[in-house]
Amino acid sequence: MTAEVVSVTVTIPTMLAQLIGGARRHQVAASTVAGAVAALISEQRLLGVHIIDESGDVRRHVRVFHNDVGPASLDTTLTQGDTVTIIQAVSGG
Amino acid sequence: MVTLGIGTAKGAWIVSSADRQSWEISGPHLKGWEVTTLGRAPGGDYLLSAVSPWYGAALHRSSDLSRWQQIVEGPAYAQDRELSRIWTLQIVGDALYAGVAEAGMFVSRDDGRTWSPMTGLNEHETRAGWEPGAGGLMAHRILDDPTNPDRMWCAISAVGVLRTDDGGETWQLKNAGVVCAAADGEDPEIGYCVHSIANDPANPDRIWRQDHKGVYRTTDGGEQWERIQNGLPNESGFGFPIVRHHGTGALFIVPLESDEYRTPVSGAFAAYRSTDDGDSWHVSGSGWPTDMYFAGVLRDAMDCDQLDTGGVYFGTTAGTVFASTDLGETWATLPATFPRISSVRVLDA
């Protein structure tokens, strides 16, 4: 059964927001956490290199949270109004 | 107007002066990002490369040194190799080259908007044996030959200097005469840890080299190198940047005690200058700290404005920018302390 596409809020760190005019919160339509990240990158192409590495995975020192819990599995199904938060991991320094 | 780009661990600062005595300082630009180098695109836009340990590296451009826009299709490896940092930018004719880590070169032929890998270098036959040095595995300096656009030199840490004579299709290692820093058991041609190179545009076969294992020069394009350390305070000849004022031939380096310590000998900080093509070196003029100053200068953190009056500028790991406007006779510091300085580039002169 295909998961329903819903509207969620993706929040990005200030360091990335400054690259796209300052907006930290973005409304996207997606059915999974991975889909929300992809939708964000589709709207803001230059963020792609900063969130996803050359192998297509989320960067090693980037974490993705779902409803403030994480790190979230990328195939987590979303429900209307959920939040997806991209943050820098402590492991990055 | 002289304009300097200061790349630091936490952003870039733009420093400008009409008289090279009083300076206007703006920044930080790309706050929080390490700015690893700055430069110009062939069409005139300013460029900087920024990196973070979380978010990777990208190029940014600006027409006014105020508003910066990331280049969406910047240098990037396809897969299975990380582009972790952009180390240097070099205009050659209408083309723009970037040296990066993991070691490689990219070229743009549309003013920096899109980029292609230099496969001849990036997939060099010796690549399997390339190992990183303490600073990483990176192509950090590119020199061109103004008399022949097919000739370039690329300096790669812990590998050596490579030269192309066919526009980048093929590259040959050129390190004979240099002490090898990290000999590879299988391939004696690699393992040379070049830190910086500078050439004479009027005679491009003359190249000076600050290496991990000392200071060298070549007069035949790299076929053979000779050691030139007479007068230096450090037996090791260790240091990072080397720059040349082309009008007079004056050379500038910043000696550090050794690769173990990477600080000035006994904390006596000073740049050294040679006015005889490297035959001898001496402390460059006056204006150096009288107290102990245990900081270093990184390989991209020194530049020369090439004006007749000879402006030389460099920034230290302690955040101080030293400037001379008389070819190293006198030095003064800019009225600011920056984060650790990775790069000092003359953007306008």
Question: Characteristics of this structure?
Answer:
heterodimer; A: 93 residues; alpha+beta; 4-stranded mixed β-sheet; 4 strands; 25% strand; B: 349 residues; mainly beta
Structure, described:
The complex is a heterodimer of chains A (93) and B (349). Helices cover 20% and strands 25% of the residues of chain A. Chain A is of the alpha+beta class and 93 residues long. Chain A has a 4-stranded mixed sheet with strand order 2-1-4-3, covered by helices on one side. The longest helix of chain A is centred in the middle third of the chain and has 11 residues, at 33-43. The radius of gyration of chain A is 12 Å and the shape is globular. Chain B is built from 1 helix and 28 strands. Chain B has a 4-stranded antiparallel sheet, with no helix packed on it. Chain B has one helix spanning 119-122, and strands at residues 2-8, 11-17, 24-29, 34-40, 46-52, 56-62, 69-70, 85-92, 95-101, 104-108, 116-117, 139-144, 152-156, 160-164, 172-173, 194-200, 203-211, 214-218, 226-227, 239-245, 250-255, 272-274, 282-283, 302-304, 312-315, 321-324, 332-333, 341-348. The interface between A and B is medium-sized, with 21 and 22 residues.
